[in-house]
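INTERNAL AUDIT FORM
Audit reference: QA-55
Scope: verify that the stored structure record matches its stored sequence.
Auditor: D.O.
Record contents follow.
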Amino acid sequence: MSTVAERTPAPSEYGAHDAERFLPEQHGGHRSDFARDRARVLHSSAWRRLAAKTQVLSPTAGVDFARNRLTHSLEVAQIGRELALSLGLDQEIVDTACLAHDLGHPPFGHNGEKALNVWADGYGGFEGNAQTLRILARLEPKRLDSAGRSVGLNLTRATLDASTKYPWPLSEANPGSAKFGFFADDREIFEWMRQGAPARRKCVEAQVMDLSDDIAYSVHDFEDAVVGEFIDPEILTARSGHDTLIRAVANWADGSFSEDELGGAFERIAESESWLTRWQGSRADQAQLKNFTSDMIGRFARAAIQHTLEAADGQPLARYGANVVVPREVWAEIAVLKGIVAAFVMESGRRQPTYRRQRELLTELADALWETGESELEPAFAADLRAASDETAARRVVIDQVASLTDQAAISWHHRLCDVPLV
């Protein structure tokens, strides 16, 4: 991926504070604390469930080539490991953060996230990244404290921090944004994790995870959309309706880039030797499309590595030693690929009835579980509901249950609890 010199981390760059766990543990063997974290995520049930959760298309759609949240997370982790190696960061920390970054996604991906956020309005909201921390530090059972309370996978401070994209609560979210990193009743673990960290600043490992996610998301979702024939490369190459497309990309990017910047970014991408000018599904077409994704990943990663190392000027990068630096032109190119997919898939008029029905299904399911109480919850969540101190805590349990389900499980639960028998 990289042609720039790799930087080797000094052992002192990660210390006892970084390797500390909320609940102290003692281990023998040759594995590092951070390698143990990776194994815990990899063997978790929450991670396995990602195989049946939406990335762009639902696994229930019958499209067997499209990525799901698990394959996406594996690809993010591959990019993250390569970036970590080149930047002299601990590969296990970055790899684990990449594997874990989407654990909190509910059924139907971001669309399901919208539905649960509306259902939880006034009760702390819902955000997939905050749910990730909740899973890692509470819901995924691995370690219990002396009072029998789950502390989740009990990951190290450095790994947990690297998995946190938005280190602030809902009350401190950026204006116009619903992104936040923890729910109110997870404040204790958040504050422990952030001891000694600059307020609202992501550690560099979390920045690498976030960039790896952006690269994988932009490139691989574009690939899936071409293979699924949502995007026609011939139309893109011919610039048919090009101005309208660039405006749609600009709107999707929410004003982060001008239309001129995005138009220039499109032209740079289209100048790639591996740019596909048509799609007929032949092996030659498939190979060229795969080479295009490889070229774009390398292009984006090399730029980030070069500019980050130059900005660090030889100083240690680990934890809060530096920031990831990505040129604005590269961010614009990433935004173009994301925006094209959004325009042809997520914002497509023909997809809207499906998205609307997905949101309705999750809302109806949450309502049904709220009405039936603990009787229809899985045993662990039923126990949480019995222990809930108020309505906010009780509703959070229902959200935890719904968010844990795969796409197919949500459909099945809805059929069982919500569909009215015809006879």
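Auditor finding: record pair retrieved intact. The chain is about 55% helix and 0% strand.
Action required: none
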